[in-house]
Amino acid sequence: MKTNKIEISQKTIIFTILFLIALGLLWLIKDVIVLFFVCFILMQAINPAVVRLEKFKVPRILGIVLIYLLILIAIVLSFAGIIPILIEQTTGLAKTLPDLIKNASFFGISTADLSSQFKILESLPGGIANTAFAILSNLFSAIVILMVTFYLLLERKNMGDYSIKYFGQNTGSKIKKIIDQLEIRLGSWVSAEVLLMIIIGILSFIGYSLLGLKYAVALALIAGILEIVPNIGPIISVILASIIGFTVSPTIGLLTILVGTIVQQLENNLIVPKIMKETCNISPVITILLLMVGAKLGGVVGAIIAVPIYMTAEVIFKTLKKP
Q: Which domain holds residue 278?
């Protein structure tokens, strides 16, 4: 009986070793890669506005500075009025929620067994302080992101020329096309996400306020922030709000679920079809899978950037596939 020998060439072995080393190096600098990708997304989101300003004869560097200032002013004005209320309501929510759950009943069913699952919320005020300290301690990272994004915006118009110069006419043209397509998709995705967060937050606040629900500001802000995590985030925000509603009465709890459902239906049937479908065009099943994988590999940040990473890979694949 003849035995088949499998021969592996020296080139294959060297290539395999170099490939594994490259993967190891990429893993070591994964934080830098994620940071640069975030900067790239911000560049793609801001650049269309810079281009519009250029049409009005505004120099590119001045346009970038103006947009930076507008973003900063919007953030300061938004949080200046909401932070004191948010801290007060979030602290109250964190302190009272475990006891409310423990003493409440849903249609006669005791929730004492569920209260232990929410003990983590008791440390939320301290968590807020720790988060604030972490934000301050990582201010340098935020500055780096803004600076890298600034220089990427400055060089955005030249990226196509750089691609052709360093990679040749054929490959460079494809890279230029990829960058242009990503600007359309990622820029629209960021704009759509921000718009959705604002709309969901406002609608949730109006609904919870009409019900007389406690902590309406905190719950509305949570709903708006969690909107950035597709499918899963809105469900979590409605569940949290309904828990507060059921501690008042079964009727308020059901009405809270109804308000959350109405808000989500308005989003799904009016906003998302016009904005997000044209931007992402990703099925819910794939989206949930992306979120699970992203969360497993990179936590909250991984879940947030999972969709844009998929969109980037999709654009690259489709562009390179074309002759």
A: 30-148+170-321
Q: Which residues of 49-76 are buried (b: 16+ CB within 10 A; e: fewer)?
A: bbeebeeeeeebeebbeebeeeeeeeee
What is the tens place of the pLDDT at every residue in 173-202?
A: 888 888 888 888 887 777 777 877 888 888
Written as one letter, the residue type at 123 is S
Task: Give percent of the chain with pLDDT exceeding 90.
Answer: 0
Report the share of the chain in percent with pLDDT over 70: 69
Residue 220 is given by DSSP the state H
Q: Contact at 8 Å (CB) between 176 and 160? A: yes
CA 137/CA 29 separation, integer angstroms? 21
Residues 6+ apart with CB under 8 A from 170: none
- Measured between alpha carbons, how far is residue 193 from residues 198, 219, 220, 227, 250 in Å? 9, 18, 16, 8, 33
pTM check: above 0.85: no
Length of the chain (residues): 323
Q: Is residue 181 part of a domain?
A: yes
Burial class (CB in 10 A: 0-12, 13-18, 19+), 44: buried
pLDDT per position as a tens digit, 5-36: 555 667 777 778 887 888 788 778 877 888 88
* Within a domain: 16: no
CA distances from 306 to 144, 149, 174, 203, 230 (A): 22, 20, 24, 27, 11
Q: Which residues of 251-271 are buried (b: 16+ CB within 10 A; e: fewer)?
A: ebbebbbebbeebbeebeeee
> Does 189 reside within a domain?
yes
Question: How many domains in the chain?
Answer: 1
Nearest to 72 by CA among 146, 148, 141, 139: 146
In a domain, 153, yes or no: no
